[in-house]
Amino acid sequence: MSEYTEHTPSGASVGRVEKRFFTFAVPPHPLDVDSGRSLGPVTLAYETYGKLDEQATNAVLVLHALTGDSHAAGHYDATDAKPGWWDIMIGPGKPIDTDRYFVICSNVIGGCMGSTGPSSIDPETGKPYGLTFPVITIADMVRAQKELVEHLGIKKLLCAIGGSMGGMQVLEWAVRYPDMVRAAVPLATTTKHSALAIAFNEVARQAIMADPKWNCGDYYEGGKPGHGLAVARMIGHITYLSDEAMRQKFDRRLQDRCEISFAFDVADFQVESYLRYQGQKFVDRFDANSFLYVTKAADYFNLEAAHGEGSAVAAFAKARCRFLVASFSSDWLYPTYQSRAMVQAMKKNGLDVSFVEIEAKWGHDAFLLPNARLSGMIDRFLDRAAVDAAKEAKEAGHAL
């Protein structure tokens, strides 16, 4: 569940973009979350690209992965060296064509990129929530997104699309709000975490909580648990790559040396240096408590238990949209067998489903990288949904 994969912008860009904020659930009308607690007020950071059509039928909701954010495309200003995390996919003439579609991407609750999360100020205490922030779920994230979508004047999304944890949100949208989703594209994702995925997240969380500076989540006025968070990120990065990707990228090559050092404080191998760099870079931009909360939300996600009493077939019986499901051959975090299982459950309900396993050697990260086959499929899938939406809108107009 990576994001901000290194890539250079190609093709047309949406240009300069602006992060916006939407606040709702203002007391005495808080957001009730699955843990039994209430939260309010709640702020979502979001960005939009393109223009909403008059009948509000062209909205595409992009859902980000674990530690992503609302900045999916474009640049904030001329000094912004890196575009949004899915700039390869969103923009004029790109698969999610901003000349045709109105694209929305919001930062999830529990995050730390402008949306309400554990580092936000609790209005009751005047201090950061820390661990007093309620445990949140994927469903809670989607409930909050629904508030934003309705605030923007949209009754039905043309499409919900996202990968990894973003794909979980796509599935939750499709089942929880079936009348609000015309089409759905879950990429490199699952209906529930395997024991393997939960295990990696737990080790990462333990790395944070073992850092003395974590201080039971109350570190905002002192030094943050940088070492624990960096180790957590290193663990995550290993799961984002494949054996082949690691071999091609690093193999056993040494880092700036000709011989091994026989020392522990030195990154002998390139892969060690890479992981240390990624870990430290992550510390500079992410909050340790948010990492605990979003990984827990991903681990708790179980579409079958929440909507089908343990049955995927029963869960997808609630969905009405068409699906495009894609997995990647080298993704061992969410392997293809999990996507096939969800596709089978969809088909048993007679849903319109397209499925593809894309040959890719880069592991779980592949959904964030340029891929002509995936781009073409998304382009055609959205076009088909848009044609249907236009037809329905025309028929509704005639009915009036």
Short structural summary:
This protein has 400 residues and is of the alpha/beta class. The chain has 11 helices and 14 strands. Strands 1-4-8-5-11-12-13-14 form an 8-stranded mixed sheet, sandwiched between helices.
Task: Report what the structure shows.
This protein is of the alpha/beta class. It has eleven helices and 14 strands. It is 36% helix and 14% strand. The radius of gyration is 21 Å and the shape is globular. The strands form four sheets. It has an eight-stranded mixed β-sheet, sandwiched between helices.
Topology record:
Layout: E1 20-24, E2 31-32, E3 38-39, E4 42-49, E5 59-63, E6 90-91, E7 96-97, E8 102-106, E9 121-122, E10 127-128, H1 138-151, E11 159-163, H2 165-176, E12 183-187, H3 195-209, H4 226-240, H5 243-249, H6 270-285, H7 288-300, H8 303-308, H9 312-316, E13 322-328, H10 336-348, E14 353-358, H11 372-399
Parallel strand pairs: 5-8, 5-11, 6-7, 11-12, 12-13, 13-14
Antiparallel strand pairs: 1-4, 2-3, 4-8, 9-10
Q: What does the oligomeric state look like here?
A: single chain
Strand pairing plus helix content: what structural class?
A: alpha/beta
Radius of gyration: 21 Å
Order of helices and strands: EEEEEEEEEEHEHEHHHHHHHEHEH
What is the helix content?
25-40%
C-alpha end-to-end distance: 46 Å
Main β-sheet description:
8 strands, mixed
Number of helices: 11
Q: What ranges have pLDDT less than 50 throughout 5 or more consecutive residues?
A: 3-9
Q: What would the principal axes of the Cα set say about the shape?
A: globular
Strand proportion, as a percent range, falls in: 5-15%
Identify the strand order in the major beta sheet.
1-4-8-5-11-12-13-14
| Number of extended strands | 14
- The averaged pLDDT comes out at 95
